[in-house]
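fyi for ur records
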Amino acid sequence: MLLRNIPGLYVLNMAEQVPPRLCWQCSLYESAMLLDAPLPHAPDLLSVLREATAPSHARLDDAFGALALNQRDGIARFLRAHAIGMAQLYPPVRDFMRRELGLICPDYPAMLRADLDALGEPELDAGDVSLKQDETGAAAGISYVVTGSRLGLTVIRQRGYWGEAEGFRSAYMEDGAERAGWKALVPWLRARGDDPSERDGARAAALESFDIFARAFAASAADDIARQDAHG
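which gave:
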C-alpha cells in the first residue's frame, strides 16, 4: 500500500527471493507481481499482465492506501472490500489453482465471512459476477491479480493491524498459503504467452479483476455510510 495512513508494505519475490520492496497491498499496490523481471527472450504472459495492469495497480494502491489498518473501521472496511471482490473472483482462482498448479486454494470467502462475523459486520451484497470466465486465459489473469494481492498480507501480518490487542485475529490476514500459490504461478505464466487468444483473455480478465476490487472498495464505503445513517 501507499506510505500514507498505513505502514509501507513490502513483499518478497517468491520466485527468486529478491529482497522486499514496496507493494500495493495492503494488502494491496506496487506489488510483488511487478518485481519479477521478464525473461530476456520473450514477452511472456507474466510480462504482458504486469505491463497491462500497471495503471490499475496504481489506482487501487491509492484507494487501499488511504485506509488506517491500525483502527477498527479501517480493518473492517478492508475486509468488507475484499469480501465483496473475492466473492466474484474466488471460484475461477480456486479452479485454476487446482487444475493448472495442482494446489488447493484456501477458502478466502469463508475466511472473510468469519472475520466479518467476529467484528459484528452484517451480510454483504457481493453484486453480480461479471467476469467472462470462459475466455481463454481468463482464469490465469484473475489468478494473477488475486494471488499477487495476497502477498501484501505477509507484511501486514508483520506490521500488525487493529484487533490483535483486543483478541481479534483475522483468518483472512493470517492465512499464509499465498507464498506457495505465487511461487507456482510465476513459472506457469512465464512459460506461456505465444497464444494470442490466451494472452488477450488473460489481459482482459486481469483488468476486470482490478476493476472488481475497485468497485468493491467503493461499495464498502457505501456500507459505512448506510450504517452511520442507521445510527443517526
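The chain has one domain: 10-230. thats all i got for now
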